[in-house]
């Protein structure tokens, strides 16, 4: 009976998320209600030259938003990525932009360390943080600002993976697009807010009222911590009507494993319900649950399991086709790879709090209690280094 309940709930979530994915742009676009004319400071942390770095950066400089300034925040101002950013700055002399060096080291998240100086140096209160591998559509910043209405503290955008050029990249597409994106769209339809670090729009004054750097420094997932910080002020988190796009290009299996393990560990520590739901809502465990429950209804286990997997793949493929997301003969193999990998990743995330990020080992923490004096979060991070 438990297996039957698992199968029914999981398949129900699949069908609901499919419907939510189809209805997402129409439903979400009706929710924008803020002013679209506020000036914005865009902060882009740069560390490495990602696939299509130039295209992603130029998509930001090409935005037609009045009052836009761009801050490129880097720990190494002489790196290849910083040099490429300078070259792109020179191609857009009419856009106010600066390259700032960040020397912060106290945050668990290397991305927060990199972009914090840009957040502090920004001229405007309204801050947009954008990963250097995310491309924007024309007018996207203006649309994002329009979602920052009364009672909203953080606006994020669902990220869609594009241009996979290796089998590992196709598996990542299957994870990001076919699973994460549709489930996020279902959560949004249910009124849930998610901080997604690829793009975040917020008021710096709100972040400072919520505790500033220390409210984020403890967290490996600074995006989830940002949503939590805004929630402490009674401000909500919403997802924008438009999705963002990240160009995957070539990805190795090592990169895929480390990135997915990091997300799993962050969910286990900072968002346990998402961590549990990731396993319960996966196709392979659902197929196994269906096989276990099949005799209860007079059915053979193997056809139920295979039918569940086949139906799941078909529904995800239809969604990708209708949404214009990457789809090819590789998608079926990527689906199999994703489902084989998910339980192994999940079990590994149960046994470790350490992940590799930006070439360094980082540890995921639970939020520490505030301490007097020099700040609880920074103290925890320093203590972890001393260990």
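^ structure tokens above, recovered residues below v
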């Amino acid at each position: 009976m438990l297996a039957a309940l698992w199968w029914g709930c999981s398949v129900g979530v699949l069908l609901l998320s499919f419907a939510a994915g189809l209805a997402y742009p129409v439903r979400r676009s009706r929710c924008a209600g803020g002013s679209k004319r506020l000036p914005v400071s865009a902060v882009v942390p740069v560390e490495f030259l990602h696939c299509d770095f130039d295209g992603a950066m130029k998509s930001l400089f090409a935005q037609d938003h009045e009052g836009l300034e761009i801050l490129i925040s880097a720990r190494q101002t002489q790196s290849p990525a910083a040099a490429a950013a300078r070259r792109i700055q020179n191609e857009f002399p009419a856009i106010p932009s600066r390259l700032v060096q960040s020397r912060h080291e106290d945050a668990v998240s290397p991305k927060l360390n990199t972009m914090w100086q840009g957040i502090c140096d920004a001229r405007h209160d309204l801050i947009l943080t954008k990963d250097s591998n995310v491309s924007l559509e024309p007018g996207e910043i203006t649309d994002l600002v329009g979602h920052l209405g009364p009672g909203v503290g953080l606006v994020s955008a669902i990220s869609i993976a594009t241009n996979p050029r290796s089998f590992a990249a196709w598996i990542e597409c299957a994870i990001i697009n076919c699973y994460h994106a549709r489930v996020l769209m279902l959560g949004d339809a249910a009124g849930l807010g998610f901080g997604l670090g690829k793009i975040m729009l917020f008021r710096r004054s709100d972040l400072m009222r919520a505790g500033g750097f220390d409210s984020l420094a403890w967290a490996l997932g600074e995006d989830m911590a940002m949503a939590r910080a805004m929630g402490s002020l009674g401000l909500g988190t919403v997802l924008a009507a438009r999705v963002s796009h990240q160009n995957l290009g070539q990805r190795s299996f090592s990169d895929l494993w480390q990135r997915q393990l990091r997300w799993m560990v962050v969910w286990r520590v900072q968002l346990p319900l998402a961590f549990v739901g990731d396993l319960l809502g996966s196709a392979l465990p659902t197929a196994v649950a269906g096989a276990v429950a099949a005799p209860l209804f007079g059915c053979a286990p193997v056809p139920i399991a295979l039918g569940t997997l086949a139906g799941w793949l078909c529904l995800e493929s239809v969604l990708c086709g209708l949404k214009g997301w990457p789809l090819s003969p590789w998608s079926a193999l990527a689906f199999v790879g994703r489902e084989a990998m998910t339980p192994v990743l999940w079990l590994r995330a149960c046994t470790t709090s350490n992940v590799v990020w930006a070439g360094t080992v980082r540890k995921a923490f639970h939020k520490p209690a505030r301490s007097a004096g020099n700040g609880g979060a920074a103290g925890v991070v320093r203590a972890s280094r001393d260990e």
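DSSP finds 15 helices and twelve strands in the chain.
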